[in-house]
Amino acid sequence: MNEEINTSQMNCGLNGCLFFSTTKVARALGKLADEAFFKTGLSPSHAMLLYMINLKGKIQQKDVGELFHLTPSTITRLIDKLERRGYVKKQSEGKNVCLLSTPEGQAEQGEIVDAWNLLHKNYQDILTEEELLQLLEINKKLLEKLTNKSE
Predict the structure, then answer these.
(1) Beta 88-93 vs 58-60: how paired, if at all?
(2) How far is Cα 145 from Cα 149, in angstroms, rounded to an integer?
(3) Distance between CA 51 and CA 101 in Å, rounded?
(4) Where are the extended beta strands (E) located within the chain?
(5) Which of 41, 79, 109, 111 has its CA 20 to 30 A from that of 118?
(6) How many angstroms separate the CA atoms of 89 and 98, rounded?
(7) pLDDT value at residue 78
(8) Neighbour count for residue 90 (Cβ, 10 Å)
(9) pLDDT tens per residue, the chain (151 residues)?
(10) Are 50 and 101 within 8 A, CB to CB?
(11) How buried is residue 102: exposed, middle or buried, by Cβ count under 10 Å (0-12/13-18/19+)?
(12) What pLDDT shows up at residue 128?
């Protein structure tokens, strides 16, 4: 059955779909983030994880998964790279594994903050501060309802 696909109908359906719409936005923001964090030598995810460990000084590995909404295997891969670079070290505390920042990891904090500020600068002219806050609230609500958790 060969039917002609009406391109305008297909685009309308994709643009009206929350999944496809947010996925497209996520890819575009991901590209902006990759460019902003390029100078750090870390992916945005690695940089944000190191940033959080540096802020706290010590964090349990299981808390990282909850904070970032990532699977344990993904968290392990992120941590392994930071550990190989000497930015973090693991410390066992009974059944828990804690992550500690190293002096080398702490030294990266300034570059991470600079990259974060650059990323924010790259999209701040697109949305007003009020729109950004609204979008963040909507995203939080979606995430809470979709994961059946409240943060």
Answers:
(1) unpaired
(2) 7
(3) 9
(4) 58-60, 88-93, 96-101
(5) 79
(6) 8
(7) 93
(8) 12
(9) 445 555 555 555 666 788 888 889 999 999 999 999 999 999 999 999 999 999 998 999 889 888 888 888 999 999 999 999 999 999 988 888 899 999 999 999 999 999 999 998 888 888 888 998 999 999 999 988 888 754 4
(10) yes
(11) middle
(12) 87
Cβ-based neighbours of 38, under 8 Å, separated by 6 or more:
none
The residue assigned the tokens 């609230």 is: 137
Q: Which residues of 56-81 are buried (b: 16+ CB within 10 A; e: fewer)?
A: eeebeeeebbeeeebeeeebeebbeb
Cα–Cα distance, 99 to 63 (Å, whole number): 10
- Looking up tokens 């600079």, which residue turns up? 114
- The tokens of 96 are what? 């828990």
What pLDDT sits at residue 1?
46
Helix, strand, coil % in the chain, rounded to nearest 5: 70, 10, 20
Q: What is the DSSP string of 30-42?
A: HHHHHHHHGGGTS
